[in-house]
Amino acid sequence: MKKFKEKFIGDKAFYKMLFAIALPMMIQNGITNFVSLLDNIMVGQLGTEPMSGVAIVNQLIFIFYLCMFGGLSGVGIFTAQYYGNKDDEGIRHTLRYKFWLGLAITIITVTVFVLYGKQLIQLYLNGNNDGGDLIKTLSCGHNYLMVIIFMLPAVYWGMLYSSTLRECGETFIPMISGVIAVFVNLTFNYLLIFGKFGFPKLGVVGAALATVISRYVEASVNVIWVYSHKDKYPYFKGMFKTLKVPGELAKKFFVTGMPILLNEGLWSVGVAMLAQAYSTRGLNVVAGQNIASTINNIFNIVFISMGDSVAIIIGQYLGAGDMKKARDTDNKIIACSIFTSILIGCIMFATAGQFPKLYNTNNAAKLIATHFIMIQAIIMPKDAFLHTSYFTIRAGGKTIITFLFDSVFMLLISVPVAYVLSIYTSLDAAYIFALVHAADLIKCVIGFVLIKKGVWMNNIVKD
Question: What's residue 129's pLDDT?
Fold first, then answer.
């Protein structure tokens, strides 16, 4: 027991250090996801079809978010280690690389959504007998998409700054900008969805417009703060005196970071394909899964923030060359993430049936949502371990391994299992959902072996 405690339980200084990094992200994610729940409920008051149309588009937008996150955080591995190595010019090079990569991702995404948005939404609308109006759902979804695409440049510009701040240990300012943004979003959602206080009643278009406004506010707060406090963040000084990145460094960033971009992009495509597989069981499943996913996002903020903390803390230790401290700290963060997720999962399971009652949808969709929430609660410790393991391996630059570990597994195992069970069995969608996640136990074994062997313990910025 003493050996177990020394290996997995930290002292007061450890938890103070961990939560100094993780707590602002937990607060930001918690407020963001809580307000997203309120947004979701407000859209849900419009009926099953508008809610489902918006949910489908958000599934597509999720691909953009993860591609942007993957692209910027791929080079962010270097940012964290440059910061640990006190190399400001190295950080500036990562910023310039992020600028070009983020711009390319944004342009490509906007082009695809403008040209093929309606066809992408239709992939989720299958013939069924559950009474849903598929034409209305398509119309609501497409109207929402044609407004929400104006948000993408703001997301790109905001993430350029917020990701760098986090990688350098500054999580408070991105938290503040995120909190401001979600309250702006909530306010304009109320005003524009329902037409309150003289504002036009725009329904799903109002929900999209509110999100666009909030993202521009968030990006503006990050940018204004950085340029009004340049002395505190010297690595931002002169970042755009040139947009050139040295060829050798660009190649290094590309080789290490591209697998993460591909991983996040393909993983998000895999998630969208899973949702499409479940949607073959009808519009009620689309609505139920949307409700469950929104609730799950609220409860999983702790282990999500723990994973982000691994990327920052372990990356800095590796950059400083302190391998022993990196391993010890990583063990304790992973253990903390699993223990807290067990407790939170129990609370989530016990309250699963209460959340769907908040939505103006039919009883079938509510029952499906309840079942999905209960399953998500049970599997939360598994997800906590996989999430922190992924970021541990990635912190040491082993991006090819994370690519195989995450998206390749998703596309070769999880997605085929979902489609086979959806097409060739009569199992309820909730049972299919559970079996797909049960396959992740294979990843847990692989992740445990990789973490124990220490394949991730690398300094990738040393000369």
Answer: 54
